[in-house]
Specification:
This protein is of the alpha/beta class. The chain has helices at residues 21-28, 36-49, 55-70, 87-96, 116-129, 146-160, 181-184, 189-204, 228-237, 255-258, 260-272, 286-303; strands spanning 5-11, 74-80, 101-106, 136-139, 170-176, 208-214, 242-247, 275-277.
C-alpha cells in the first residue's frame, strides 16, 4: 500500500431542526421551493419522529469505525447529499489533505441514475471546483456485498422466529420508490433490489415474500410500486397475519424508516389486525462496517493498478 487513500462515505442528509425543513426540502428539489402544504406535511412527519434523526450520527459513526478498521494510509470523510456536512465540503477537505486517491461509497446498496448518480455528480463538481485531479473510484452499487446480505438476513431471521408461527411469516422487502420511467431507461435499480431481497429471503428462511416501495412522491407521473400499505392491505385480505417488513434499500434509521414503517405501516397494521415486525437497520453494525472495509480494500487494490 503506497500513498494516502481518502474514503468518502455519503448519505442523503436530514434537517437538524424543524425550522430547517423548508430549506432542506428546497435543496432536494434542486432549488425549487415546495408548496406551503408540502412543507407542512414533511415538517409534521419530522416532528413525529424527532429531529435531528439519527442519520448523521450513524453516518459519522460508520466513518469512524471504518477508518479504525482500515488503519494507517486511509482517511475517511463523511458528506451529505442534501444537508450539512455537505459532500462538497468533504471533498475540499480531501483535496486539502493531499490524498493520492479517492474511493466514494454511498450508504445505499442499489444503483439508480436518479439517486446514486446525483451523489457522483456532486463529487465530480466539487473536484472540478477545487481543480483537483485525484484518481477516483466511485462504487456505484454494492447490492450483492456478502456482509450486507448476510447481516440483513440474520436480522430478518431474528424477527421472524419471534412470531407464534414462524413458517407462516410473510417477508416484505422495501425501498424508496422512484419514477417508473427509469425502467424504460434501462436503470438497474429494481433488478438489484429484487436480487438482494431474494438472497436475503433465502438466507433468512423466508419462504413467502414480495417487494414493496415507500415514499412515492406526487409528481404527476407513475412511480414504482406496489406501495407497502397496499401490500399489507391485500395480504391481510388474503388471510396473512404475520409480517417482517425489512427496508433493504436503506442502511440507517431515518425518516423513511422511522415514519414510513414505524409509524405509518404500524398504524395500518393495527387497523388491519395484523402483526408487523421490523428488523433493526444496519446502522453502524460492526458486521456491516467490516464488509464495507473489505470492499474498500478490494477497490483500493484495483485503483492502484490503474
Amino acid at each position: 500500500m503506497t500513498g494516502r487513500t481518502a474514503v468518502l462515505v455519503m448519505a442523503y442528509g436530514s434537517p437538524d431542526r424543524l425550522e430547517d425543513v423548508e430549506a432542506y426540502f428546497t435543496d432536494i428539489r434542486g432549488g425549487r421551493r415546495p408548496s406551503p402544504d408540502a412543507v407542512a406535511e414533511l415538517t409534521e412527519r419530522y416532528r413525529q419522529v424527532g429531529v435531528p434523526t439519527p442519520l448523521l450520527a450513524i453516518s459519522l459513526k460508520v466513518g469512524r469505525q471504518l477508518e479504525a478498521l482500515l488503519g494507517p494510509g486511509y482517511r475517511v470523510h463523511v458528506g451529505m447529499k442534501h444537508w450539512t456536512p455537505r459532500i462538497a465540503t468533504a471533498v475540499q477537505r480531501i483535496v486539502d489533505d493531499g490524498a493520492d486517491r479517492l474511493i466514494g461509497i454511498v450508504l445505499a446498496p442499489h444503483y439508480s441514475r436518479i439517486s446514486t448518480g446525483g451523489y457522483r455528480a456532486q463529487v465530480d463538481r466539487a473536484l472540478a471546483t477545487a481543480s483537483a485531479h485525484i484518481p477516483i473510484d466511485f462504487v456505484d452499487s454494492w447490492f450483492d456485498l456478502e456482509g450486507y446480505l448476510q447481516t440483513v438476513a440474520e436480522n430478518v431471521h431474528e424477527q421472524a422466529v419471534k412470531f407464534a408461527r414462524p413458517d407462516d411469516v410473510v417477508g416484505i422487502f422495501t425501498a424508496h420508490s422512484l419514477p417508473a420511467r427509469i425502467l424504460e431507461e434501462g436503470d438497474p435499480y429494481r433488478d438489484q433490489l429484487l436480487f438482494s431481497a431474494g438472497e436475503i429471503a433465502r438466507r433468512a428462511g423466508i419462504r413467502r415474500w414480495e417487494f414493496a416501495f415507500t415514499s412515492m412522491s406526487d409528481t404527476g407521473e407513475p412511480w414504482l410500486g406496489p406501495d407497502l400499505l397496499d401490500v399489507l392491505q391485500r395480504r391481510a385480505g388474503e388471510g396473512d397475519r404475520q409480517f417482517v417488513v425489512a427496508s433493504v434499500g436503506f442502511t440507517a434509521d431515518h425518516l423513511e424508516i422511522l415514519y414510513d414503517v414505524d409509524i405509518e405501516a404500524q398504524a395500518k397494521a393495527r387497523r388491519l389486525g395484523i402483526e408487523v415486525r421490523r428488523p433493526q437497520m444496519l446502522n453502524a453494525d460492526p458486521r456491516f462496517v467490516e464488509a464495507l472495509a473489505e470492499l474498500v480494500r478490494q477497490r483500493d487494490r484495483l485503483l492502484q493498478t490503474v
